[in-house]
Amino acid sequence: MKLMFASDIHGSLPATERVLELFSASGARWLIVLGDILNHGPRNALPEGYDPAQVAGRLNDVAERIIAVRGNCDSEVDQMLLRFPIVAPCQQILLENQRLFLTHGHLFGPDNPPPLCDGDVLVYGHTHLPVAEKRGAVFHFNPGSVSIPKGGFAASYGILADNILSVITLNDRRTIAQVAINP
């Protein structure tokens, strides 16, 4: 099963349009949205093309293919605009031999992980920093931010294909982090 991951959209219409373009071309079954969808939050500058209502409308076009979790900038008011659920603080996807634990990263994350089995994958956003690595017995994956990248990184998204998690730059599609998750 091929999956695409996007995090920290923060209401950017150009980033949303690019994500949806890449999702359409990717062959991924699901688009996993890791929170902070519509609002920029008080610590971030307004992203390019800030238009939360249009972002909601564009994402609603593929609502049946989105699995999402709530970020620290998401609210119940945001849910009123979106046709897919965003209020769960975490979700889980079961693969054949392991679990993907999806969260935004502000409640569960690298410094406060949920209980995970060896070989499971902690998938989170929040930091806007790309990560694809094994830490101890657990894999960590953060696709970075599609709209407000930090740490000198380019805007990025993630793909899971053939048991490989990759972080890929949004505009030139370079792989900047990658890990094989074969148990």
TrEMBL record:
Domain Calcineurin-like phosphoesterase positions = 1-160
The record's top EC class is hydrolase
* InterPro entries per record: Calcineurin-like_PHP_lpxH, Metallo-depent_PP-like, MPP_YfcE, PdiEstase_YfcE_CS, Phosphodiesterase_MJ0936/Vps29
Instruction: Report the GO molecular function annotations.
Output: hydrolase activity; metal ion binding
Q: Superkingdom, according to UniProt?
A: Bacteria
- Keyword set includes Hydrolase: yes
- Metal-binding: present as a keyword of the record? yes
Q: Which cofactor does it need?
A: a divalent metal cation
Going by the UniProt record, its keywords in alphabetical order are: Hydrolase, Metal-binding
Q: What is its EC number?
A: 3.1.4.-
Cross-referenced PROSITE patterns, in alphabetical order? UPF0025
Q: Which Gene3D superfamilies match?
A: 3.60.21.10
Similarity field: Belongs to the metallophosphoesterase superfamily. YfcE family.
Q: What is this protein called?
A: Phosphoesterase
The species this protein belongs to is Intestinirhabdus alba
Q: What is the lineage of its organism?
A: Bacteria, Pseudomonadati, Pseudomonadota, Gammaproteobacteria, Enterobacterales
